Amino acid sequence: MSDLVRLRDQLYAVVLATPLLSCSGSSPRAQDPEPAAPDAAVMSRSPGDAAPPDAAPPDAFIARTPPRQDPWPAEPRDCSGGASWCGTIADVETHHHSDDLTLRCPEHFYEGVMSFDLELDDTKDRRRLGDPETCCYTVWNTCPGGRPYGAPVIAGAALVERWLAAAQAEHASVASFARASLELLAVGAPPSLIAACHRAALDELRHTSACLAIASRLAGRELAVAPVAALAPRGGGVVRVAVDTYLEGCVAETFGALVAARALDGCTDADATRALRRIARDEARHAELAWQIVAWSIEVGGARVRAALVAAAHRLGPPRCARVADPSLAGSGQLDDAGLDAAAVDVWREIIAPLTDRLLAAA
Questions:
Q1: Which residues contact 162 (CB under 8 A, 6 or more apart)?
Q2: How many domains does the chain contain in total?
């Protein structure tokens, strides 16, 4: 259950910190009259307080991961990438300036075909050990098309289909985040939320490429995803933004983060492990963004938004599932149907329902 607890505490801390988003820089519209308290049927037990920060790592950390002397790493040999690289702030600022005044490291940037994603934990460890200049990254080869690499491994059709379906879902999420950014623009959301949507879309592109590469290797042939039609922004103002974000982000992204974290347990495929580790971190960050957007929507939309969210939560309700287990999938980084059902039940009872209640009560 540790994966569930970590995700719960991460998102719980976000909800506690952003019920009013008082530092967002936006000017909320007049509130509607306060609605009645949310129906108790949405409630579940509240999670515990957020976990304390991890203790500082041992001094041996610097010896384990010394800064690179050359300015840029060698190009990753395969599309899944996942190589680690550390450089100085001076190295990376020439390519992408950071607005983060604490770490001063860009969260994402590109160097040729290589994509650099900031490793927050490693970089923060450096700061705790007195190193103010090093930025650590995971380096990915963008590899459009998801071409297979290395020796092909012919796997069962069900496993290939699951990785391909994962790639298709990640690909569709790119369009979803693009639409969300336009919808946020239309309702006057803070620039920080809009910028985060664009960063999330780039995350989903990297997830698509990694999942396609794994599916192609397992199938022994090149696989691709179909084009995704442009999604037009939906009407409905801040109420629609809140409900859609709740369903597509607070629920779906939180579920996706837990699924990826649990798929790591028992995974023996090195490429899948690297991809799932990245996906689990990104999806948790996307879920954080969704809860922040919903909090802002409640702030500016008042009673209408709160009532719509209560109705949406009631329509979902706790899942009731009981499907067949297939332990053979675990080593390749995929949950079977029974595992997906268990994750759906756990994420609703332990994270989504209590966080929904806490957010609505805080508002």
A1: 329, 334
A2: 2
